[in-house]
Amino acid sequence: MPKLLKRLCIAVAFLAGSTGIALADFELNILHFNDFHSRIEPINKYDSTCSEKDRSEGKCFGGIARLKTAIDQRRKASDNVLVLSAGDNFQGSVFYTVYKGKAEAEFLDLIGLDANVLGNHEFDDGDEALASFLDNTNFPTIYGNALIGANSPLAGKMVEYVMKDFGNEKVAVIGAVTADTVELSSPSEAVLFMDPVLYLNDAVETVKAEGATVIIALTHVGVEEDKKIAAEVDGLDLIVGGHSNTLMSNTADNAHGPYPTMLTGPSGKQVALVHAYAHSKYLGDVTLVFADDGTLKSASGEPVLLDASVTPDPEMVKRIEEMAAPIQEKMDEVIAMASAAIDGNRESCRARECEMGNLVTDAMLDRVSAQGISIAIQNGGGLRASIDEGDITVGEVFTVLPFQNTLSTFKLIGSDVVAALENGVSQVEEGAGRFPQVSGLKYSFDLSLPPGSRTSNVMVEKNGSYEAIDLNATYGVVSNNFMRAGGDGYKVFAEKATDAYDYGPGLEDVVQAYLASNSPYKPYVGTRITEVTPKDTMAKGSEKTASASQMAKEDATAMKTAVDDAGRHIVKEGDNLWTLAEKYLGDPFKWGDIAKANPDQNPHRLEVGQQLNIPAKAN
């Protein structure tokens, strides 16, 4: 803050104190969403496009028209409102597939964003598609820690930060995108990414020098990285995050944590952290109140569920229908039936064998098996939605597989196949999209081991049975062109593959054809992927392992034993595992310990009067 401004502030504070007048608090209202992923139309409970049946039954959520209604209503009700997008507006529906960002640009402009930050998916179609999006928007997009070279078409089209004046207050919005964008997407070589923490520390000093009195970090790095930012970047008041599709809430049963989550910065200053899930299902709404000395007095709010109670903006609905007309007939075409819902949930497909992973990898292998290909590997992050029971439409498949990836076939020796699997399970704890869904292959992994040495029991299918992989043998592999180019850390595909062909049919076309040939499709999971952990680490040479379900039972038994040292709790109205974990264990993020201690209870459906076992608090 400039010296003259400091003196003026001191003088005003002195006068207020000497006359008994208290300066008014400053209230700032922030509306935010993240990971919109082109969900221009409403979604169903599976985050896929809402059907007419769902619409008629009032079971749709979100969509840009509902988002506009909610934002407009909040703006009318309050002063000092900021509307922020935390990145990944691209990719995820047929609107992006057809319009390549032009639809997103038009509709996001209409809701009146004050600031937008880059997400990794903004680079999915290279610098050119993002540049076109920026040319068609009137709101500022923050490049933050992205270093844009002069030879990129993005040069000069974004801002480093946004500064908004609210009376005497200057609110700065700085930003950062995950440094893994180079691996996760397709930026040109003219775009580099700094470490978010290093960049944001510098950015705070920059905006302070410009007179900022409130500093917001608008990030697309994921909730765990946001916690690191809060702990290591001094001077922040609020972090508005995205990338991990995290729901923070004080009322939702499946919330990751409270909204806002209060953290402590390097100098002891309180920092509020908020996330609002994804896909336009929620509108985050947080209110910050600052004392006249700039101290954050309070942070409160709750994401607004954009359900049937929110009426979509009629003018925007009309425009959506106009843009949807040319593609709707094709997208509504029924290609198959599903005998049950096909789980493509993020939490499933990025951590374990999932139904959608089996469908997609089976379809990939089916298409190319006649070419001598015996193994299919698909990144879980490339599976973007579930499919509900009943009719399966072209549009639903596009929603699951929106990236227009093509099949890539190539050859790898067995040791490189194992290396690829090691990469895939190296970041399971972070929910990374590189998790490998497979067909023609089985493997186990152990998260207690360091990355690079987690896999075991890698087996390949041969003549209807499985045998141990031969590390020196050559195998035919099918994946997608993104992974083959080294995306999601699969550098072994880019560097070690031979006889590669990256221009096969579109993955969505392959899956559509497979579903049509296997209708009604029955989703399933089997034993392709098994999470294991040693039962007896003292037994030398032993390979005794336990399945994930066995591990859960053992953990629950241990937790029940620990309860004897702690106690029990009778559920009262308003209780949830977050508040109970904070009360009894001193940390709301330890709610999972209470869940494990009560294996017969649904942790997301606490009923008043039920008895919960409370494990002993660790010293």
Feature tags:
30 strands, single chain, six-stranded mixed β-sheet, 20 helices, 619 residues, 5'-nucleotidase,  domain 2, globular, alpha/beta, Membrane-bound Lytic Murein Transglycosylase D, Chain A, Purple Acid Phosphatase, chain A, domain 2, disordered N terminus
Task: Please give a structural write-up.
The chain is α/β, with parallel strands linked by helices. It folds into three domains: 24-317, Metallo-dependent phosphatases (Purple Acid Phosphatase, chain A, domain 2, 4-Layer Sandwich), CATH 3.60.21; 333-533, 5'-nucleotidase,  domain 2 (Alpha-Beta Complex), CATH 3.90.780; 555-614, LysM domain (Membrane-bound Lytic Murein Transglycosylase D, Chain A), CATH 3.10.350. The chain contains 20 helices and 30 strands. β13 and β14 (296-301) form a beta hairpin. α3 (64-77) runs parallel beside α5, α12 packs across α17 (507-517) and α18 crosses α20 (591-597). The two termini are 44 Å apart. The model is unreliable at 1-22 and 536-566 (pLDDT under 50). Keywords: Hydrolase, Metal-binding, Nucleotide-binding, Signal. GO terms for molecular function: hydrolase activity; metal ion binding; nucleotide binding. Residues 567-614 form the LysM domain.
